[in-house]
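Subject: for your reference before the review

Hello V.,

The reviewers asked for a structural picture of the protein, and I figured it would be easier to keep everything in one thread rather than splitting it across files. Below is the amino acid sequence we used in the manuscript, unchanged from the supplementary table.
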Amino acid sequence: MFDPKLLLPEVIYALPGFEINIYFQNVVTVINPANYAFDVECEKGRCDQLRWRWIPEEEDAGEHKLKLSVWSDEGLLAEAETTVIVTPRNAGEGKNLTILQIGASCMAAKGHGEELHRRFQLPGNPKLVMLGSHAPGYLPVTPGGPANEAYGGWSWATFFEKEQSTQLDNDGLHPKRPYDVPSPFLFERNGRKEFDFQAYLENVCRGVRPDVVYFELGVNGTFTCRTDEEFEKFWNERNYPFMKRMIRAVHEALPDAVLAVELIPKGSWSQDAFGKNYGCLQSRRRWLINADLLYRKYMALAGELEYMILPEYHNADGAVNYPSLEEPVHASSSVTVSRAANALHPLPEGYSQWADCEYFFLKYLAAQSK
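And here is what came back from the structure prediction:
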């Protein structure tokens, strides 16, 4: 029987007054989800054609079981379960929470960090401090404002290897990327540049130590793989070794911090967006396979490397969250249509759904006094 590769995170975080979603296209790896039926068993929320959705209330704080089943005309194809944890709205009120985000273009973009920062300005929150050498959009950090350590096109390996700007060419998709920036984690040691996270904390963060560090890395490199064999080769040679080194270095410098790996949304639901950005170099079909492989790797390693999973991919509307362009139906026509135009980098409403998941996760940690 066909295996649709259904993947739900073990835990989904939620908060009263905010919508939480499971968009079915994002959690099942099939070419056309419209060919299947999705059933949700849960005491909360509602099951629509494209998603399960719910806005919890204060009295919903606690754990709620959810089961998702995928059906075809032949019968049940797959099923998976998760736990939706609703954190009290005032979790962490009056406390301090310091975070460091390390990532690539989606974290670096304007809109993402600002949305997260804005949520923490609402009543009932801890005081949030965001560390990093720059603000979203590669702008200077404003005291008390959003900050991160994220760069377009970077991978786990880049933070260990990029000593100068010429080592990373413009790929056309990250035009605002600062090419004169070497890895902020490299410091001169015995005549050579070495990765030193402790020195980064002392020199860039001025000795301030984050309570939570989370990573939005792994898409660059694995994205372009065209076969499972290519994926495994890149993972084993370029992704896993550097991921392990970075996470262990952060644990060593910050033994009491919570570490997490962010599972970002899988992008636009339209092949048009992939064609616009990548021509024939990568398709939506193949990226869905790569993303599924990547997220399964991250989930499997969480216990060994002692980090948490910060899931976001389930909560993103790939139909409306991404930019589009008006263009002729074909070269000989004066009729225009709107086509999706960016595969992975969303509009502000897309980053808003991402920021929701980070906010819910951080509020959960605040409630645990971690």
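For the response letter, the relevant points are probably these. The chain has a mean pLDDT of 94. The first strand starts at residue 11 and ends at 14.

Happy to draft the paragraph if you're swamped.

O.
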